[in-house]
């Protein structure tokens, strides 16, 4: 099955059922949603998109984003969704690597997409479901995606270079079905859709899951706790989020002296993208009156590897057992696995990517004998539940998004006053992480950190920008000159307090 067939199936079964509530509150039935997809596929083909081509979609959440993803599938092409909040250089690097035939910009609800579209001289369109813009046809170099690739999602990777994760139609259909069953999503449900569809969590666990089950999404382009509170009071039934979304909602309710949620139809709440803190989990469950479910996955696994289905009040803070059809095992022989029972998490099954686009070496390194090496360290308890205990790679997870230190460090190192930079993550209450940048310079007293912050802000999207910049004349290093990152927080504890 192709991913657009999920929508076609729902349209045939319940054409009048609500499919989308857009950012501005406008609603579309499955019949209208499918019509928008078919009209857009025809438009894309008229403008040069051919089977096997790639359509890059610079987007924030809105109806047009969902339509463009499915229309690309209907046209036989491959969607490459990227967050419109990325900087121009970031998008340019992905464009060079992906070599799309066309670039679409969801201008209706994204100021950043509009800026990128204007800079590219893209042409504006509106087919009745929202505005978007299209570039002129671009030259395409080669076609190296697998035949069944539906979407390519880019992750920066530990080297700082963009890596395109090829997710097949089979990957996404499997993930949508698994997510729908895990959350017990039914046709009458309304999923609060603030997770970006340019990220695997929002794409697979939200867009594909609702399409699989014939449910509806209430889309939000950016998270705002007041809008979430209103949506939950008004009838949203499922809320998949990341830890800080839950924390900001609880803070908003307390700060404004509002009543709790009360008797609302919400029946499923989950928190992904970061480990759960036991005390914070209890607080969130008391607020919602529902169990807070947790899970584990990554872009290369189409989001899902494992997930919990715990009752309210459970002390379990694991990532749960493997999803049906998914296998996991631990490689305890990796150098980073120094504790008994801990190893690198390996997984295989229909959720595992086809490979990295135009990167055979990275694919070979990550996928061995049918198993995907995740780079994450974990242990499996007596019940079969997976616990993530650390990362073999220098990955920081902030707001549910992956932040790779080499990319952030590269942005700082471009500045003339910076000798070298080291970036690490530090855990925060609630399970999120902050990004800390330690900058070596000639004179820390004269370094203008505000100017430096602005300098890197122009090169990095918002979630990659550091929370703190610590300037120093020297950084702790080994005799070889390699920065000892594990010592940075302790060495500069006074400046971080």
Description:
The protein starts with a helix and ends with a helix. The model has no long low-confidence stretch (mean pLDDT about 90). The protein contains 15 helices and 26 strands. By secondary structure, the protein is an alpha/beta fold. The longest helix is centred in the first third of the chain and has 17 residues. The protein has two domains: about 400 residues, ANL, N-terminal domain (Rossmann fold), CATH 3.40.50.12780; about 100 residues, ANL, C-terminal domain (GMP Synthetase, Chain A, domain 3, 2-Layer Sandwich), CATH 3.30.300.
Low-pLDDT stretches: none
Work out the radius of gyration: 22 Å
Strand content: 25-35%
Please give the alpha-carbon distance between the first and last residues: 54 Å
Count of structural domains = 2
Keyword list:
497 residues; alpha/beta; Rossmann fold; GMP Synthetase, Chain A, domain 3; five-stranded mixed β-sheet; five-stranded antiparallel β-sheet
Task: Write the topology of this structure.
Layout: H1 3-13, E1 18-21, E2 27-29, H2 30-46, E3 54-59, H3 63-74, E4 78-83, H4 88-98, E5 102-105, H5 111-120, E6 123-126, E7 131-134, E8 149-155, E9 163-168, H6 169-183, E10 190-193, H7 200-213, E11 216-219, H8 225-234, E12 238-241, H9 243-255, E13 268-271, H10 278-288, E14 292-296, E15 306-307, E16 327-331, E17 343-348, E18 355-357, H11 360-366, E19 367-368, E20 371-380, E21 386-391, E22 396-398, E23 401-403, H12 405-413, E24 418-427, E25 433-441, H13 449-457, E26 468-472, H14 488-491, H15 493-496
Parallel strand pairs: 1-11, 3-4, 3-5, 10-11, 12-13, 13-14, 25-26
Antiparallel strand pairs: 1-2, 5-7, 6-7, 8-9, 9-18, 14-15, 16-17, 17-20, 19-20, 20-21, 22-23, 24-25
Helix pairs in contact: 1-2, 1-3, 1-7, 2-3, 6-7, 8-9
